[in-house]
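Long-time lurker, finally posting.

We've been working with DUF4178 domain-containing protein (Diaphorobacter limosus) and I want a structural starting point before designing mutants. I don't trust myself to interpret raw outputs, so I'm hoping someone here can both generate the structure tokens and explain anything notable. Sequence follows.
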Amino acid sequence: MADSAPQRSYRAPCPGCGAPVEFRSAQSTHAICAYCQSMVVRSGEVLQRLGKMAELFDDHSPLRLMASGRIEQDGKDQPFTLIGRLQYQGEQGRWTEWIAFLQDGGSGVLSEDNGAYVFTRPARLGRDAPAPEQLRVGMTTAVGGQPFSVAANMQVRLVSAQGELPKLPPLGQPFQVVELRSADGEVLSIDYGSQPPQVQRGRAVRLQDLRLVGIKDESARDEQGRQFNCPRCGAPVRVELASSKSCTCPACDSIIDLSAGLGGELRHAAQYEPVQPLIALGSVGQFEGAPWQVVGFQHRSGREAGDDENFGWEEYLLYNRQRGFIFLVDASDGWSLVRPTTGAPQYKPGAQQASYLGRQYRLTSSYQAETTYVAGEFYWPVVRGQKTGNSDFAAVNGRGILSREQTPGEITWSHGSRIDSSAVAQAFKLGDKAGLFRRQDAGPVAAASGIGCGTLILVLFILFVLLVLMSNCSGSPGGGVRSSGGSFGGYSSGGGHK
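Top reply, 14 upvotes:
Generated this for you. Predicted structure of DUF4178 domain-containing protein:
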């Protein structure tokens, strides 16, 4: 029966077990019975049972049904309540979308994945949605006169649901999802699981800014933990982060895929020739006025087209409970701190420059990258040996860096800046080992701020002589010292909200 609330709700007995099933939003057509997991569809005031929904896998999300918060959109502060939950499976892992019922009677979607959140609302393209094969990854298209870059085009399927839901795609059947991003940080998703395709548009949000009430208690969630035996050697493995989708065994170094949840099949891949990180897993460093813990480490290598030699670099995945994830990168030309971008910088494939947030960047290198070793936990299903196409850019003025990483189904950008090696050592209270952190950025000229003019001339003369001798000793092009970067985002190495 209906009640007399401003937004008319509807309640009726479940056709499967007789328990009450409630619809709070007029836009909801489906619901999952909380008692028998029956999936029911509403037709007028009649409920019909369509079958039984698969059990949710425990992703240890801090969110839950009936949690409430507030979102600012178009200058208005809108209260909302989470009334439904959808779990999707893609080629590279799973993610969750929460259906938000807003006070104005409309709906929104709070997408949760990779330690990041994006809040979107239904939108219009202003034209018929193009076929998904026409939206190639990397191309630019206009939506309402605004340019958007196609960041991802992936095949996914709905695997489970909970609560009150809009029109659903057939359970378990694959369909395409295309994600576009603008230069100013907007995200636009086209869901081809229904006809016509559903369009959502919004921006990244921080969980603390949503002022959520009724979420899971953080300490209780930590106490649960996740522990299991390694599928390769049987040693105990404990997963510390709720968002981890892969980890490594501390005993045999095997990479373990957690994307199907601990109740699913745990796939693993053996690793040999372990790399010892300079900064130990679990270490805490101070960056941007906040503590960040090292939760993951990976070594990657790259090779430019036409070059016979590889170059390598290392990436530390850092985590802060309130701010999510960032990457600390250790390359031959120095250290940098970067994070995935929500928006897509302005760039034409093959161009020598890009722009982001009003700043110009020039291309410094393009290369094929490969993950060669990993340790710790990651918020994406990391794969040893996975290859990506990378392009690195440096700010025309300043220390800013920009990176682009491409896989067959996704392009991810990341943005950050270079930092002094001494600052990295001090951040982790390893000043006594500062020499181990020293890179090109801390060479004799850069480090010795008080040297005299004569000393500087002598240093430059010695460097010149060494260069002449090296060039005379070899006529072949060597690998030399190389930059790295990677684009620290997407499923290949992090970021993205799906």
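Before you design anything, note these points.
Residues 65-210 form one domain.
The chain has three domains: 1-53, 65-210, 297-467+486-498.
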